[in-house]
Amino acid sequence: MTEITRQATAQQLFRKTTAGEPLHDGDAAHEHTHVITVVVENSLGAFNRVSNLFSARGFNLHSVAVGVTEDPALSRMTIVTSGNDRIIGQVVNQLKKLIDTRDVVDLTDLPYVERELCLVNVRYSKETRAELMDVIEIFRGKVVNITPDSMTVELTGPTKKVNAFVALMAPMGIVDIARSGCIAMHRELVYE
User: Fold this and answer.
1) Given 106, 132, 148, which residue is the final one in a domain?
2) Could you tell me which residues are beta bridge partners of residue 105?
3) How many CB atoms lie within 10 A of CB 140?
4) Best CA proximity match to 100, nearest among 64, 138, 47
């Protein structure tokens, strides 16, 4: 038994375990991906204040997607980052206190729908064209531009699907890639 576990109470150990914090010296904190949606007012500097909360704590933002909501005065930010639950929880609470924020939800442990748009320009030849078209069809992609030696494919879906598609395209020779980043909404489960 280490010094930390001997001094910690059962409640402290439970809190550390559920927050993903290390129990022993030298242990790494358990970090996982968090998907957070933030509804903010469309005011000067609002997006900057939100992203500064993450950068001030040294978090890397994997993706940030912003778009207007049904109300033109509000925008929805979808932020994907990694961290332990306790620290992300603190950031979420601080986001709720910002003047420009209307709603903040960490979707990580909730049911949600996510999508990402990806455009991939990939090389092809007469020999690889049929195989490439089969993969595009399997992933329900769409060819949006074609030249004699490359084609641009549009793909929409969850981030894992997009990652899988990009991995399959890499051996064929990706010329260029553009990704929108994850957008997400809480999924209402009516029949639960």
Assistant:
1) 106
2) 37
3) 11
4) 47
Domain count, the chain: 2
pLDDT tens digits, one per residue of 37-90: 999 999 888 888 888 888 887 788 889 999 999 999 999 999 998 888 888 888
What's the distance, CA 177 to chain centroid?
17
CB distance 79 to 183 below 8 Å = no
Q: Which two tokens stand for residue 136?
A: 């595009």
Full domain range(s) for residue 149:
112-186
pTM: 0.74
Quick one: how many helices (H) and strands (E) in the chain? Answer: 6, 9
| CA–CA gap between residue 139 and residue 122 (Å, rounded) | 15
- 20 pLDDT higher than 70: no
